[in-house]
Each structure stands twice: as C-alpha cells, then as structure tokens.
Amino acid sequence: MVGGNLVDVGPFIKLQRTKRQMTQEELSEGIVSLSYLSKIENKKTKASPEIIQLLCNRLGIEFAEETNSHIEEKCQQWYEMLFDHCDKQEMTDRYEELQVIMNQSINESFIMFEIHQIRYYSVLRDFNKALAKINELHELVDSFNHKHEYYWYKFKGGYYSLQDKHAKAMKLFKQAQEKIPLANLNEVEIADLKYGLAVTHSQLWQQLECLDYTQEAMEVFQREYNFDRCGQCHILFGISYQRFKKYEKAIKNFQLAKHLGELCDNQDVISLAHQNLGYLYSTTGNSEEAIKNYLLAIEDKDVDTDNLLSTYTCLIEEYYHVKQYEKVEQNLREAKELLSKVTYSDLYKLYDYNIKVYTHLINEEFSKFKVLLTDEFIPYLKQAGEHSDLVFFAKLLANHLEEWGKYKESVQYYKLASLSYEEFVNM
User: Fold this and answer.
1) 0.85 exceeded by the pTM?
2) What is d(CA 74, CA 94) in angstroms, rounded to the nearest whole number?
3) Chain segment 75-99, per-residue pLDDT in tens
4) In this structure, are residues 137 and 173 in contact, taking their beta carbons and an 8 Å threshold?
5) CB-facing half-sphere around the CA of 325: CA atoms within 13 A
C-alpha cells in the first residue's frame, strides 16, 4: 500500500499521532519540517518511503506494503455484526482482536475501522465513547474518500437518533444519502440507510415519508430473507398505520413483526411488537388487551433496556388509569430497579420523571407531584420538544388541579395541553 499510494498514509499518521497525544512538533522533530508533516497528514504531498518509515518508527507502528485481504475480511465480518440483534460479547471480542492489529500497522482498512467504532459504541449504548470517537475523527474529515464520508454521516446520524435528536439525525442521514452514487455500496447497505431514514421520519411524525422508505428497505431485506430486518420494518408500518387510525392494518403489521421475531428468535422485535400492540389497544380504550401485551413485552428482561423502560412506564400509566394501584406499586418497584442498573444519562431522564410522577401519585404526595410537574418535568418536556408526553402530563396535572378545586391553575394546564396538541398534530 505504502509503495503504491503514499499520499493516503497521511490521515493514518495523523490519527495515530493524535491517539498517542503527540504533537506535530514531537513527531516531526529531526525527520521533516513541521509544515511538511502537515502536508503529509492532509494528503497534500507524497512523502518518500524512507520518511514514512521514520515517522512510523517514532509512532511505534509498521506499515504494510500491500493491502492485507485477511485484515479486510476480518474487518468486514465485524462490520456486519454491528446491529442491535447481534451477540454483544462476540462483537466486543472481535473488536478487541482487530484493535490490536490496527494499532500496530498501517493498512487500507484503518480509517474505515475507526469510523465504524462510532457505530460499535452506539450499538453498545456507550454514548460517551461514541461521542469521543466522533470528536477524535473530526480532524480527519478532509481526508475521507466518498465511502468514508458516507459512513461518517450515517453513523453520526445513528448516534444522534439514539440520543433522540431526530432533526440532527435526519440532516446527517440525508448527507449520507447524497454520497451513495460515488461510494460504491451494495443494496443491503443502502437499504439499511433507508431504514434509518424511515425510523427518523417516524420519530418526526412524517408518516408518508416513513412508509416510502420502509417499503424500499423491506424490498431488499425480503430478497435477502433477512427476517430480523423485515420484522423491524413491519413495526414501522404498524406505527404509521396506527397514526393514520388504520388500526386493522396496524395490528396486522405488529403481528407479522412478532411472527418474524419468533422465526429468528429476536426477542427485541417480539417485545417491541407487543409494546406497540399494547399502546394501540390503550389509545383505543381497550385496557385489558393493552395490559396483556405490555406484560408480554417485559417478559424477557434481557431485551433492549430503553424498550423495557418505555414499556414499564406505559404499563404503570395503564394500571393507574384502571385504578389497579397495587399493580402500579409493583411495576414502579421493578422499573426503579431496572433504572438503577443503567448508566444514567439524558436518554433515561424521561423514564426517571415518569417513575417519580407516579410514585408521588400512588403515595398521595400531591404537593410533591405538583411541584415536580410544574418546576421540573413540564419545563423539561417543553425544552426537549416531547409534544406527545407534554400533552399527556399537562392534562394529567390539569385533571388533578381541577379535582383539588384549583380551577384557575387547572385551566392554565388544559390550555398548555391544547396548544401542545396543536403543535403535535402540525409537526
């Protein structure tokens, strides 16, 4: 590689230097001038093999003269594992094995391997490390080729999507989409991006766009007999149809998702199908079926923590609605225990507030309930743009204020619920 394409070695040298917290002055001293090293790192010049060798020696690495197909193959196998349904321990074992190789030599796979670490840490929900990797790679962006740029935008979009920053995620996914014609990608990879776009459109309540991208993605997944991904697509179809109030179509898609999840033993898909069925039945006033499906959704405690906590909060709300207060207490305890086991971040703040609200209600701590909502939770929901939850909790507070005879305050929060609903339906 180095003999044939020396200009491409620069970005690798730059990244290895920054990973070792070495300055350009420290690396270049006695080998080349500072300005010449900068040109090498930014692909502005073609250095001699002797200079590259000296720089690598100082970094404590070797360079490979030719592309190592064995390393490329091992990297590709690892890239194909970076999905939520894959075994996390095997994913980590493969990563650690590759990391040893990548830290010792220059090879064609290095930058792509570094970019894929954003995805790796996102799948593991280690968002601090994902963000650190994004920040670390920022300086190399000018050195990326079209394929690097595609994955850079795509994986950053995935990171922000998991952080519930969906407008930012959408912008990045669209930037990735623009790179497709020049990035030499296979149709499965393009379908995965389209699935990401579909999820983001769904989060932004853009149902027609969601349906279009979901359909395009699923056509590819069906040809590949990828039942995991087809199941995920059916969940998106179900959510969209539910929002259009086409409930029979929604139920059919959720049931298809559950069936496909069972075929490939994907508990996350099965759980998510039951959670969405529960929510559908709740919104249509069928509490019995809602509770039944929510309970099935939390049966397997090893599924995605975010989905589990989301289901617990729905279940608590439903039990409170039907006045089964002992069940509310029981599920509050389980939800608190689950929340105590996760690394706390803004991602879980919504669930924490939900749990506190119903804890105060069930303990008849009405003053604490009111203060929590007025001073903390409702301002948080406003700032986060969580319109659906804002409607629900503003109305919940208004109902209780009305019961306590605080009619003036009650009207204030009914009005907030109404305005939030208008913003919600006009999204």
Assistant:
1) yes
2) 8
3) 999 999 999 888 899 999 999 999 9
4) no
5) 6
**Residue 231 vs residues 172, 183, 273, 276: alpha-carbon distances, Å:** 25, 28, 9, 13
Total Cβ atoms within 10 A of residue 91? 17
Q: Domain segments of the chain: what residues?
A: 1-143, 365-427
Amino acid at the residue 325: Y
Question: Taking a C-beta distance cutoff of 8 angstroms, is the pair 307, 162 a contact?
Answer: no
Judged by DSSP in three states, 315 sits in: helix
Token pair 């490979």: residue: 64
> Which of 329, 239, 322, 339 lies closest to 280 in space, CA to CA?
239
Radius of gyration of the chain (CA): 25
Neighbours of 116 (CB within 10 A): 20
291/336 Cα distance (integer angstroms): 19
Max CA separation in the chain (angstroms): 84
Q: Which amino acid is at 307?
A: N
User: 10 Å Cβ neighbour count for 283?
Assistant: 13
- Cβ 29 vs Cβ 147: under 8 Å: no
Tokens of 348: 């879980």
Q: Are 144 and 152 in contact (CB under 8 A)?
A: yes
Distance CA 55, CA 33 (A): 12
How many angstroms separate the Cα of 49 from the Cα of each of 6, 18, 214? Answer: 8, 22, 49
Q: Are 139 and 99 in contact (CB under 8 A)?
A: no
Once rounded to an integer, what is the mean pLDDT over residues 102-117?
85
Q: Where does the pLDDT of residue 2 fall: very low under 50, low under 70, confident under 90, or very high at 90 and above? A: very low
CA distances from 12 to 35, 44, 56, 63, 176 (A): 17, 14, 10, 10, 22
